[in-house]
Amino acid sequence: MPLKKPVAPERWRMSVAPMLDWTDRHCRYFHRLLTCQSLLYTEMVTTGALLHGDVARHLRFNAEEHPVALQLGGSEPADLARCAALGEEWGYDEINLNCGCPSERVQRGAFGACLMAEPQLVADCVKAMVDVVSVPVTVKHRIGIDKTESYDFVRDFVGAVAEAGCHVFIVHARNAWLKGLSPKENREVPPLRYELVHRLKREFPQLTIVVNGGISTGAQVATQLAQLDGVMVGREAYHNPWWLAEWDAAYYGAAPSGLTREAVEAQMVDYMVREAAEHGTSWYAIARHMLGLRHGLPGARRWRQVWSDHKLKTLPPHEVLALAHEAVPKAA
Fold this sequence. Notes:
Blueprint: E1 14-16, H1 25-34, E2 39-46, H2 47-52, H3 55-59, E3 68-73, H4 77-89, E4 94-99, H5 104-108, H6 119-130, E5 137-145, H7 151-163, E6 168-176, H8 183-186, H9 194-203, E7 208-212, H10 218-225, E8 230-233, H11 235-239, H12 247-252, H13 261-279, H14 283-287, H15 300-307, H16 317-331
Parallel strand pairs: 1-2, 1-8, 2-3, 3-4, 4-5, 5-6, 6-7, 7-8
């Protein structure tokens, strides 16, 4: 096993959250056109899917996506170690363990947020992965489960898992209620308590602490970065993706990119052509991820309607692009 090289905390300054059914490789390719440096995460991939399913389907990604992290769901240390090794073999830059998903389906698999009740098991899982990979092993979790609002709970969880070799914690600043709320409600109903995440950073200054949950503006990002190492953005990044085009200059000191929405859209069309030729992928499966590109602009609704019109699925994507551009001035 090669010696692990430390990764600077700046790697986690800005990231796009793992979102089930959303952050597939096509979505990540799109986001990478907008931000060169922010960290991208896969959807959660379960150990069972990798050990008993189509590995290529779950792990294939585009070289342009780097840096990109693989999020795993599981609770058996040996299985997670095997899957982490697979992730590194496929070229992922980080392996992340999901300890934050509250869905009942995930709970039935004995992983996700319910793992926070078993910090020693999570520590064992992390150690098993750390022992077999040279890339960082990180954990994404909540500040608590159910209605337990004690800071001691999350502090003890982070302390135990850190001792096993995890140095990066991505903290969704809400509790996960394991019963009575849907996953959507779990992103909205439990109150945000950023102060607990800030307290973790003060108590564990040697760790990289990233906050997630409810962050949708540059002002909010600035507030969090004043106290923490990074910010992970979820649904706002998906629904308003053009915001990502500001991140490299705002948070990494890069020169303004000079990107235009039209240039990004054209690159996505080229990608659609490539994907169809190499993998038989319909442009329709890719276009859904860029429907927020013109968010807030005149004609955005009509533009979205063209790109999401299933009746156009048989047309080449360049023709759909032309139709979409014809529609915008008429709606403006």
